[in-house]
Hints:
The structure is a homodimer.
Chain A: H1 11-22, E1 27-31, E2 34-38, E3 48-55, E4 72-78, H2 84-94, E5 100-105, H3 108-123, E6 128-133, H4 153-167, H5 171-184, E7 185-191, E8 211-214, E9 225-228, H6 232-246, E10 254-261, H7 267-283, E11 287-294, E12 304-312, H8 314-321, E13 324-325, E14 330-331
Parallel strand pairs in A: 3-4, 3-5, 5-6, 10-11
Antiparallel strand pairs in A: 1-2, 2-4, 7-8, 7-12, 8-9, 10-12, 13-14
Helix pairs in contact in A: 2-3, 4-5, 6-7
Amino acid sequence: MKKLINHPQNLRREFLAGLALAHADTLRVCLEPVYVVRADAPVPGKTAIVSGGGSGHEPLHAGFVGKGMLDAACPGEVFTSPTPDQIEAATRAVNGGAGVLHIVKNYTGDIMNFEMAAELCQAGGIEVRAVVINDDVAVEDSLYTAGRRGVGTTVLAEKLCGAAAQRGYDLARLETLCRKVNRDGRSIGMALTPCTVPAAGKPTFELREDEMEMGIGIHGEPGRERMPLLPAAELTARMAGTLLADLPFRSGDEVIAMVNGMGGTPLMELYLVYGELEQILQRHGIRVARRLVGNYITSLEMAGCSITLLKADDELLSLWDDPVFTPGLRWGI
Amino acid sequence: MKKLINHPQNLRREFLAGLALAHADTLRVCLEPVYVVRADAPVPGKTAIVSGGGSGHEPLHAGFVGKGMLDAACPGEVFTSPTPDQIEAATRAVNGGAGVLHIVKNYTGDIMNFEMAAELCQAGGIEVRAVVINDDVAVEDSLYTAGRRGVGTTVLAEKLCGAAAQRGYDLARLETLCRKVNRDGRSIGMALTPCTVPAAGKPTFELREDEMEMGIGIHGEPGRERMPLLPAAELTARMAGTLLADLPFRSGDEVIAMVNGMGGTPLMELYLVYGELEQILQRHGIRVARRLVGNYITSLEMAGCSITLLKADDELLSLWDDPVFTPGLRWGI
Lengths: 333, 333
C-alpha cells in the first residue's frame, strides 16, 4: 500500500488537522467527537445543514463546509459511517434556532446513525428534518444499502440547499427543496481500478487489465457488470443512456451536469468525457445549463468517473449561481 | 493501459473540446493551430500573458486561462512541447497592443519553441518578453533540461502575473515581477507510482511496492534518489528541509505555499501533508500567509505530491488576493 500517510489509524485526524490549518478563514475542526463546522457557526436565525459519511470521498463532505453550502460535516473513518455522537454534536453546534436539515446518503449505517442523532437532538429541543439521497441508478439493494445508493446528487443538493439556507429558506421549505433535488437527480459511476482502504491495506476488489466495472459504488461496491474497457465515447453514451431513461429526462429539459472523477483519473480524461456527454445530451434536446467537471465525490485513488444529471428549473439555476465559499467549491466570493 | 479516452492521437483535441464546452463563458479553443484563449481576447491596452507546455499537467496551463490569470495557453501533445506556430498564433491572438509576456517552464524543447515564436512575433511588431521558470531544487541538468526544471512556481507566477496584468502593469514591470517570483520560489516533488503516456501505452518508469522516488520531475524524469517509502511526516520534513535550505528561507519570512497532487493522490493525503508542512514551517518561524492544496500541476495519474514555497511580500500577497476566474483557480468573482 502506497499512501502519503503516517499510520492508518491517525489518517482522519491528521487530514482534518491539515484542512483546519489550510482553511481557518472558512471552517473549524472539532476532534472530540469529530466534526467540521463553519467558522462562524452557529448563524443565528439561519436554517443549518449537516451532512456526513465515511471519509475517503473528499472534498465531500468536509471540503463543502462554508458559507453557501454546509454548516457542518461529520466525517467517519474511511468508508465508515459517522457515529451518532458526532452527528448530534455537529447538529447542536450549528443550530441557530431555525432547525437543522440532515442530508444523508443512502447507506444503512449512515441512515441509522443520523436517525439516532436526530432523535437525541429533537429530545433536546432542536427541530431536525432528514432527507435521504438515493440517486444511483446502477443497482438496487447493494452491499451496505437497501434501495439505491446515494452518490453524486449529494454534491448538488449540498450546494443548492446551502444557497437556499443562506437566502433564508425555513426548514420545511429547505426539506422540500432537498427532496426535489433528490427526486430529479440521477447518477451512475464506473471504475477502471479499485482503491485501497488504508486500514485494510489491500484493494477493495480486483479488475483485470482489460476490464472495467460499470455501476460501481463509491466504496467499491459491485456494480451492474464487469465488461471489457470501452472507448470513452461508447462508455459515456452507455452511462448517459442509462441516466436519461431512468428519470426520464425529456427533450427540452435543462440540466445541471456533473462529470466527477473517482480520485485517480486525470482532468484531461474528465473533460473528454464531459465533451462526449454534452454532445449526447444535445442530440437528445437536453441543454446543460450548469456543470461541474472535476473531483467532487471520490473513492480515494480509484480511477474512473461518475456522471450526475439533475433536471433544473429557474429556482435551482438561480440557487446554483449564488456565491459559495468552501475549500472544495468556491465562486462569487 | 486503462484510460477514459478514445484514441491517444485524439486525446488533446477531445480534451480541449470538452474544456471549451464546459467553460464557454471563460475561454475559447482554437484547433488550427492548437491554443486556448480568454473569451474576451485580445483585451485592448492590457499586457497579455501566454504560457504553455506539454499536456498532461492539467489544470496547468489550459485550465488557467481566464480573467486574472493567463490570456492564452498552448498545450502540446502529452508531455511534448508546443510548436512555434501554436505559440506564435496564441501570442498574436492575445496581443492587445501592450506586448506579451511568455512564461516558459525550463525544458529544452519549450525554451527553443517559445524563442522561435517570440522572434516571429517580434518581427511582426509585437513586443514579447520571456521569463523562464526553473524552480525545481531536485536536480540540475536532468532529462530534457539544462539547469533546473520548471514546476510548481509556474502556477503561482501565472496567478500573480495575471493579477498584475489585470491591474495594468506594463510589460517591463510584469517581466520584473515574474523574475522575482521565479527567484523567490522553490519546489520539490516525489512520486509513489509512475504514470502512463497514452501514446506510449506503458508506464514511464517502474517503482517497487515499497519504494518512492524523491525529486521526481513532472514527466517522470528521474529524481534525486529512490528510497523506501517514508511516513508522511518524515517525507514532508525531508522535502521542506531541502526547500528551506535552498533559497534560503529565514525565520520571519512569509510564504505562499502549495501542496500539489501529482494527479492520483487523494485529497485527504494532500491535506495531511499540508498539515505537516505548516507545522514544520512554524517551527522555523515561517508563516504561511496563503496556500493552495490540491491538484494544480499534475503528471497524468501519477501518485505523489510536490511542495512549492514562494517567499512573499506585500506586493505578492495583494496580487494573490485579486480576483481570478479560470476553470482551475477561481475566487472573488
